[in-house]
Design a protein that fits this description.
195 residues; alpha+beta; Immunoglobulin-like; 2 domains; six-stranded mixed beta sheet; elongated
Length: 195
């Protein structure tokens, strides 16, 4: 899928580059025609041509800006990393040092992203169902004596249709498990809550 976007992006850039070259070529052709006229009209035409070249230069600059914007937009839609994503990943790495008060676990392809978390008390964790055409029933269980508490969730079980979410704020330290009762063994993870 990303390859299609990349080829499309290259094709658009080439088309825009070629169209910019054609505009410059037209100006050159106009200059050669205008130079064949004699006297004062030649001077006027040269001044006009200089102004036209300035406009074409401005248009080419606008085209370059549009190409960059288009490139960034298509790259984002294709899920490709851009320079801004590097800054975002650095920010994300810094926020994993338990300074966040909210986390989101997104369920897709019967897995959570992220699967495991380490958070401080007072942190809100949201489980979001992004699994197409599938209802997950989610909840959190607390570890008691080295095991998670049977079928009981600490705040009941919550059915989530695609696009729906459920959140819970952890007020006490301990080890917890989030899971979906979907019978898919990968739709689970652990949450360590520290003070």
């Amino acid at each position: 899928m990303k390859i299609k976007y990349i080829f499309g992006l290259i094709a658009i850039i080439l088309l825009l580059s070629i169209s910019g070259c054609n505009d410059a070529g037209e100006v050159v052709e106009d200059n050669s025609t205008d130079n064949s006229v004699s006297g004062a009209s030649t001077t006027e035409n040269q001044n006009t041509d200089t102004a036209d070249q300035g406009e074409n230069s401005t248009n080419q600059t606008d085209n370059n800006i549009d190409v960059k914007d288009l490139y960034d937009q298509l790259s984002e839609e294709a899920g490709l990393n851009t320079g801004d994503d590097d800054n975002n990943s650095e920010e994300n790495n810094n926020t994993t040092a338990n300074t966040q008060t909210e986390y989101i676990i997104v369920i897709t392809n019967f897995k959570g992203d992220p699967e495991d978390l380490e958070v401080k008390t007072g942190t809100t964790v949201t489980i979001m169902n992004e699994q197409e055409n599938f209802k997950h029933v989610v909840g959190f269980r607390k570890e008691v004596d080295g095991a998670y508490s049977g079928n009981d969730a600490i705040d009941d079980w919550h059915p989530l249709l695609p696009g729906e979410s459920y959140e819970y704020t952890f007020e006490e330290a301990g080890n917890f498990q989030w899971l979906s009762k979907s019978n898919y063994p990968d739709t689970t993870g652990e949450i360590v809550v520290t003070e």
